[in-house]
Amino acid sequence: MQQLAAEFEIDFNSEKYKDAYSRINAIVIEGEQEAHENYITLAQLLPKSQEELIRLSKMESRHKKGFEACGRNLQVTPDMEFAKKFFLGLHENFQNAAAEGKVVTCLLIQSLIIECFAIAAYNIYIPVADDFARKITEGVVKDEYSHLNFGEVWLKEHFTESKAELEAANRQNLPIVWKMLNEVADDAQVLAMEKEALVEDFMIQYGEALSNIGFTTRDIMRLSAYGLTG
Ligand code: Y39
Ligand code: FE
Ligand code: FE
Ligand code: FE
């Protein structure tokens, strides 16, 4: 039963909810589509992991289909134009890094930053989702942990030679994530997702990832809060 939804008095059929959902649902659909493409690109950059990365890219397409069904279930049309703009900063940085063969930057953007953003968002969404979307999202979030794990394992194995590029890529991309969170905060609130909870969950996931890769606590404090102001 939708106990939390009742407690927060969420009306999934209200115009207000559906309007906010048209953007959040689009962000998630676009994010899954771009994640699909990013893992195909990574498969080309990392031939040794090709098979596994193609498998991850296929999971992302399935996620996209699942979230498209969530929108249809609420009779919401996703605002894909909004979503494309929302992802443009990270999209361009990933494309440019890929063109230069900077696999460490690509992994930081997709497998650390975007996966942690997805895990935070899905964890916060699950308790306040409608029954249909909750079941879909519960299945998806398990996969996202495995995508994050791929990035962690690869970067841990190549930590020494990747450290400087990771620092630079973090500096370039983490401020973009905070900007994205601010842009989506009002719509997320309508879905009963608190910005503070999203920020907190993101910081926990990202900090843990950096720790698993080999960064010290001191490095993590500096890296994970970079660009977080206001
Ligand atoms: O790896 C993945 O599947 C990630 C692409 C998906 C990103 C989803 C982005 C979620 C942000 C939603 C913000 C709602 C508050
Ligand atoms: Fe593209
Ligand atoms: Fe996904
Ligand atoms: Fe993913």
**Which structural category fits the helices and strands?**
mainly alpha
Helix coverage percent of residues? over 70%
**Strand content of the residues, in percent?**
under 5%
Helical region count?
A: 9
Q: Low-confidence parts, pLDDT < 50 over ≥5 residues?
A: none
Shape: globular
Catalogue the ligands: (1S,2S)-2-nonylcyclopropanecarboxylic acid, fe (iii) ion
From the N-terminal CA to the C-terminal CA, the straight-line distance is 37 Å
Give the strand tally: 0
Largest sheet: none
Radius of gyration: 17 Å
Query: What string gives the helices and strands in order?
Result: HHHHHHHHH
Mean pLDDT: 95
Protein architecture, described:
The structure is a single chain. The chain has 230 residues and is mainly α. The protein is built from nine helices and no strands. The protein has helices spanning 3-7, 15-45, 50-73, 80-99, 103-125, 131-157, 159-190, 195-213, 217-224. Helix 4 packs antiparallel against helix 7, helix 5 (103-125) crosses helix 8 and helix 8 (195-213) packs antiparallel against helix 9. The protein is globular. The termini are far apart. The mean pLDDT is 95. One fe (iii) ion binds next to helix 2, helix 3 and helix 6.
Short description:
By secondary structure, this protein is mainly alpha-helical.
Write the layout of secondary structure elements.
Layout lengths: L2 H5 L7 H31 L4 H24 L6 H20 L3 H23 L5 H27 L1 H32 L4 H19 L3 H8 L6
Helix pairs in contact: 2-3, 2-4, 2-5, 2-7, 3-6, 4-5, 4-7, 5-6, 5-7, 5-8, 6-8, 7-8, 8-9
The structure holds (1S,2S)-2-nonylcyclopropanecarboxylic acid and fe (iii) ion (3 copies).
